[in-house]
């Protein structure tokens, strides 16, 4: 694994371990890591804290997938 992939893997694993409440319920670690990766991408691309990015993800089908990401104007 190259250094860039290793850094991303560490960040994703950290999200899974430190913030399980932001991730799908259940014991499937692949689904949890997948959701954590999407969360990290949103946070990075939109330059916002992970806490704020977590509020943008909705899960509606009980399939542990990201059903929608909501974007709207932020109050300054």
Total helical elements: 3
The major pleated sheet works out as: 2 strands, antiparallel
Helix and strand run: HHHEE
**How would you state the average pLDDT, rounded?**
83
User: Helical percent range?
Assistant: 40-55%
Which structural class do you get from the secondary structure elements? mainly alpha
- What is the C-alpha radius of gyration, as a whole number of Å? 13 Å
The protein's oligomeric status is single chain
Q: Extract low-pLDDT stretches.
A: none
Principal-axis shape: globular
Q: Proportion of β residues? A: 5-15%
Overall strand count:
2
Spatial gap, N to C terminus: 41 Å
Question: What is the spatial order of strands in the main beta sheet?
Answer: 1-2
Description:
This protein has helices spanning 3-18, 29-45, 50-54; strands spanning 57-58, 68-69. By secondary structure, it is mostly helical. The chain has a two-stranded antiparallel ribbon with strand order 1-2. Helix 1 (3-18) packs across helix 2 (29-45). It is globular and about 40 Å long. 9% of the residues are buried. The mean pLDDT is 83.
């Amino acid at each position: 694994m190259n250094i860039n992939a290793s850094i991303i893997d560490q960040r994703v694993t950290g999200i899974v371990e430190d913030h399980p409440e932001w991730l799908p319920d259940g014991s499937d670690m692949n689904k949890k890591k997948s959701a954590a990766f999407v969360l990290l991408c949103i946070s990075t691309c939109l330059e916002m804290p992970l806490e704020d990015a977590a509020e943008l993800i909705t899960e509606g089908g009980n399939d542990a997938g990201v059903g929608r990401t909501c974007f709207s104007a932020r109050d300054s």
